[in-house]
DNA sequence: AAGTGGTCTAGACCACGAA
DNA sequence: TCGTGGTCTAGACCACTTC
């Protein structure tokens, strides 16, 4: 189609395409509907497939589309509000906890974790794997690092294996007095194993929530939770799941 | 180098490249150092430039690299911890506030904002633009929506224009009793104007923090703050800026 | 003017899911 | 087996910064 003269200050094609598609999604498509395939869409808009894909990637990042290899591209439902850190003064594994313990091992954590826990860099800690499911969809995978000193009364005889062992460790943790917790959120990319659990490809964008549980002035446990960035909106503070529905890309100027 | 036989389950080239580059960054480069240009790097690794770029994009997303058109690719410093919602019971504009008011207009907000504020969809509200700078770098741009009913004593005579007017509106807001606030975080992409303020390109990944300020049982103000996802780690809770330095991509398995 | 990253193209082949 | 999205290539040109 040759050179286009879309704008006086030429906006990238993929950006313009993203805008056009956004409007089309809101007016002509409903949630769950399947879009035409990438080759057809690219032809329809007169761009290369790579350019079309760049626009789709943006929309997927913003949680408006969901793409699955071998299946197709569908219109995504609105992001789910996921409460984080509302159990402000509860240990992981408390009664109202939404996490499913999956496994527990005893191993040496990465150096950065050891430093935060103030354990030696060669010291093994309990590593509990948990997953979080909302509305039938997996939304997060977590690694919980618990120094052996935080669960001193745990004996080998108590701890069979797998999820049962994870629960035993968490139960022991409850016995200590929790003084507070600190949360941090940052953008990351899913490692291969997390990606698999979250039903995404490696490198998919995730929100990494790091929580430090503090007891007796020290870090008694460290949680690193990996949330799907495309489907989740993390809520903090007083009342969690209130629907604000602020769309991060369509605001007044 | 022809076809590679890296893995029995073939890992994508860009993903492998990302791993190799991550290790190289940690062992052979220091913060601020300039990498070879993309064409040279691609040739060195025997891949197409597009593939190399896919790996660099990942690393930039993870906050390890910084790329600037016309300049080059540099090793990024560790993400800065940015406290969010620690002023848990303070209005925006309080004494210790880190935001710089830039402007203030009176306009009709987007429908989603009007709904959250419980104002009519055609009702104009004060819109305060503020920016946040840390370590000399812009990290966030904010739009604050304040219904006129939240600052009833504000008179036209008090409000000249620009930053001064923004400060006047915030000052009026302080007079009300704040009951609480709610925060939500999600991934978004920077609009053109935010991108410019954050020194990024349109579509750059951002963490969108939506805060609802509650007074007298109603939403008295709504803040939508856009943080650079590549350079920021948002901290919540008791004590803000503690360095945990958890690297979101290099954890034990 | 030279060099950088950003955009775009037109192909090819692969991995996966469903029929 | 077929259709989907995912990866990869080898180019071209553009926008921006610096000299």
Automatic annotation (TrEMBL), chains A, B:
Keywords: DNA-binding, Transcription, Transcription regulation
CDD domains, alphabetized: WHTH_GntR
Database matches in InterPro entries: Bact_HTH_transcr_reg (IPR050679), Chorismate_lyase_/UTRA_dom_sf (IPR028978), Tscrpt_reg_HTH_GntR (IPR000524), UTRA (IPR011663), WH-like_DNA-bd_sf (IPR036388), WH_DNA-bd_sf (IPR036390)
GO biological-process terms attached to the record: negative regulation of DNA-templated transcription
SUPFAM superfamilies registered for this protein in UniProt: Chorismate lyase-like, Winged helix' DNA-binding domain
SMART domains associated with the record: HTH_GNTR (SM00345), UTRA (SM00866)
Residues annotated as domain HTH gntR-type: 11-78
Molecular function via GO: DNA binding; DNA-binding transcription factor activity
Pfam families linked to this entry: GntR, UTRA
Protein name: GntR family transcriptional regulator
Lineage of the species this protein comes from: Bacteria, Bacillati, Actinomycetota, Actinomycetes, Kitasatosporales
